[in-house]
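User: Before I run my own analysis I want an independent prediction to cross-check against. Here's the chain; please return only the structure tokens and, at the end, one sentence I can use as a sanity check.
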Amino acid sequence: MTLRPVAVFRFSRAEGPGRFAHWLEANDRPYRLIALDLGEPVPDDPREFAGLGMMGGPMGANDDYPWRDPLAVLLRRAVDARVPVIGHCLGGQILSRALGGVVTRAPTTEIGWIDVEATDRAAADEWFGGRERMNVFQWHYDAFTLPAGAKRVLANAWNPNQACVIDDRHIGFQCHVEMTADLVEAWCDMAPGELPATSSPERQSRADILDGLDARIASLNALADGVYARWSRNLG
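Assistant: Structure tokens:
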């Protein structure tokens, strides 16, 4: 039997699928990269795909890009058709907006390795391998509200909606779980002006972001693999 591919939407060349692609490949899940940054069109029918994945990007979910409204239509159709959706950072904001949530400037900008917490024991067990507190990567200026029917599953003191689940099959993250060491280093190189010289609890310097990077990435990869495995249960 030929498996339908997972559609992976890329908004910026610098923000590729990272660990998400590694997990799909390791688990023999075909995927199709849809490079919206290169002008590829948004497909019309989500049922062509086993699931939909959206990555991050430097733009805002409200910005008037040619793909913005067609992608929102596709996401609503996917939810109606029960085609699993996962969104990372910008992708999570886009999912929220498509389903009636609101994306605004975040109460606090978060950059670097910052803890988040599962909002209840069931969420910790179901999605995060029993973890109640997780150290994840952040780089965002905006935040999303919970659309109707969404359940908050991750939170922290800076921004309460770090991840939400819809219909027990779709998940949108404000944080980044898809990072690799190469991605972290590349982002630090591309946007040095966004990094403070001295770290604060919510914004870290380049030196602190890169300190112990291999161990941090190994822990994050283990978390992401569990999330992707849980999400994949409903892939067509």
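Sanity check: The helical segments are 18-26, 68-81, 90-98, 121-127, 181-190, 206-210, 213-232.
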